[in-house]
Design goal:
mainly alpha; Serine Threonine Protein Phosphatase 5, Tetratricopeptide repeat; 2 domains; 26 helices; about 75% helix; globular
Amino acid sequence: MARKDSLHTTKALAIIGGGVTLAINPWFSYDPINLPKMLFLSTGAAYLLGLMIIKPKFTIQVKSPLLILVSTLFIFLTISLVTNEAPWYQQLWGTWGRSTGLLTYFSLLVILLAAYLSSSTEAPALIRVSIERVGYFVSCYTFLQMLDLDPINWAQKSMIATLGNINFMSTFLGLTTISYTSRIITKKQSFSSRLFFFLIAILNLVMIWISQSIQGIGVLLAGQALLLAFFLRSRYGIAPSIFSLLSSTVVGVFIFLGTAGLGPIAAIRQETVVFRIDYWVTGLKMLGANLLNGVGLDSYGDFYRPFRSLEAVTRTGPQRVTNTAHNIFLDVATGAGLFAGLLFAAIMLYTAFAILRSLISNPTNVDLPSLSAMWLGFIVFCLISINQIGVGVWGFLITGLICGYDRRARVQSSANQPESRLDSKVRSEVFRIKSNSSRNDEKPRSERLTGSIFHSLLVALFFACALIPNVSDALFLNSMKKSNPGRALELVDVVGVQDFHLERLIQRLDNLGMKKEELGLALTLVDRNPQNFVAWVAIANNQLATDDNLYRAVKNLSRLDPNNGLLQENLNLLTKNR
C-alpha cells in the first residue's frame, strides 16, 4: 500500500474511532448509546472495506497468519448465524442495549485488518494522538456530569460520558491515562506539556475513584506494568524488563483472587467480581453444551437462566440475570462456538507475541510502548467486561496497528540482510516495499469511476443495514412516549423491532389492563423467540390464557429456569388454582 494510501486509511481509522466513541442519540432513540455507535462503526467499516477491495494488490500480497485468523473467525461467526435457532435479527444486530451481533463484529474485524494493512511509521503517533484527543472530550464531559452540569437530560444521572455506563467510562479514562502518563516521562515533552498531561491524568484518576468502578483501575495498572517493562528494557536491558513483567503478572493474579474473595488478600473482595464469576461459569456450561456453533450471536441472555447454577440463583436472588458473560472471549465462544472463541483468543495471542518481540528488540518508536500498554489494558477489559462498541473499536484498531507495525519492522529488518539469506516469501515482500513508491498504480478513468460507484454502494448498503434498527427503535420510542399502544402494536412486525421493545409493550399493556392484546403479543413473541422468559411469564399470568397456553407456559418456564425454586412454587400454585 502506497504511503499516501496508508496515511489516508490511518486518518480514516482515527476519525472512525473517535466518531464511534462519541456517537450518541439521546433525543430520538430508546437506546441512545449503542445503536448510534453501531451505525457509525458499520458505515466507517464499509468505507474501509471498499478501500481494501478497490485497492486489492496490497491485501493479496501480504501473507500473514493474522489475515487467516481474522477471515476464518468471520466465517465461523457467519456459520453460527445461519445454523442457530436464535432470532436472526438478534444475531445480526445484537441484543438491544448491546448491539454486538454479526454486523458489529464484522465491522470491528474490518477495522482490525485496515489498521494492520495500513500500519506505517506515522500510524502509531497519529492513532495515539487521536485517542488522546477523544479522551480530552470524554474527560471534560465526565467532569461536567460529576458536577451535575450535564447539558443532556439522561435517564440515568451518572458519570457515563458517551459510553452509557460508569464501568465503560472508567475503562476509557484508564486507557487514555496510560497514554498521558507515558507522555509525562518522555524526554521530548516540554515542561508545560508534561504539566498538562499530569493534570488531566490526575483528573481522570479522581473521576475513576469517585465513580467507584474498579475496571478503570485494573486497566490502568495493567498498562502501567507494561510501560514499566518497556522503560526498564530501554535503560537496563531485557532481564529486568521480563522480571518486572512476570512480577506484575503475579501481583495482578493475587489482586484478582482477592477481589473474588480468595487468597491471602481476600479482604478486598468485590461482589461485582463474584457475580462475574457466576456469569463465567454459566458461560462455560453453555459452551460445553453447544461446542460447535454456540447458542447464537449475542444470545447469551436467552440461555443464562437454564445454565446458571443453584448457587448463582441463591446468591442474591433469582432476579439477578444478565445478557452477557462479562468476558468478551466467552461472549464470542458462547455465541458462535468453541472454534470462534479460540480464533479470537489466537488473534490476541498473536498480538501479544508481536508486543513481546518489540520488547525484546527495544523499539525506537516512542508511541509503540504506549499503544502496547493500552492494548494490555484492553485485554484486561476483555477478561472482565462487555464488548462495548465505544471502547472495543479502539481495542481492535490498536490490535491491528501493533501487528501491522510488527510485520513492517520485521520485513524492513530483513531488507537490510543480503538477498541470498532471504526466503522467497520475504524477498517478494521486501521487493514490494522497496519498489512501492515508484510503482505507477494509476488506473484508467473508467475503472476509477466503477470503483467509486461500487465503493459508494457498499457504504450505502452497510449504512442502510445499520440504520434499520435505529429507525425502528426511534419509532417505537415515539409511540411509547405518546402512550399509544395501538400505534406500538402496529410496529410489532416492523423489521428492526427487537424482543426488548415487545417486552416493554407487554408491560405497558398489562398496566393498562389490555389483557387480550397482551396475550396476543406474548404469543407472538414466543413464536419469534421460544427462549423469551418475559413473554412466557406474561402468558402464565394472563387470565385469558387457555389451558393449552398455560400448560406451554409452565413447561417452558420450568425449562428456562430449572434452579429457581421460587418460580417452581409459583407455577405449582398457579396450576392448582386453574
